[in-house]
Amino acid sequence: MFTPDPIPRPSGPPASSTPLGDYLSRAHHGVDSGYVTLPRSLAEAMPLPWQQQMRHLLAEFHQAFGHLQWPVYRVVPSRYERLVDLDDDQLAEVGCTVEVDDSGELEYRMRDGRRIEDPETHQVLVSCLDPIPRQQPGGHQPAPRPAPPAW
């Protein structure tokens, strides 16, 4: 009735005790060291079963952590740009100034007066237009479907 063969063990590394942290530690859109951001228009355009699962997960999340004092978060679409490629408004946005020094060279400084040594390679985050399409009020925008494979 019982087999004398050993129980097969799954091959591969053992399951992680921090699967979400492991996943989020890799480079992904909308993820940085402190936050995970989901564009609402894309979340609302997901297939219905996905939306139902997401709604359930978020409801459990808010039930578990709703007692905390949450600030209001402001999410601004941004992209990395070289400091030397910014205009005056963008420089002001990131807290930098540019002046001509005694030798006639441009000198970039942070808001606190510190000089930026290599502005050609120094990158900063500046706001940009949101490339994610927004869902029209009252309308449903279907999620883009990948093209079928060419056989």
From TrEMBL:
Region Disordered: which residues?
Answer: 130-151
The protein's name: Uncharacterized protein
Name its species.
Answer: Saccharopolyspora erythraea
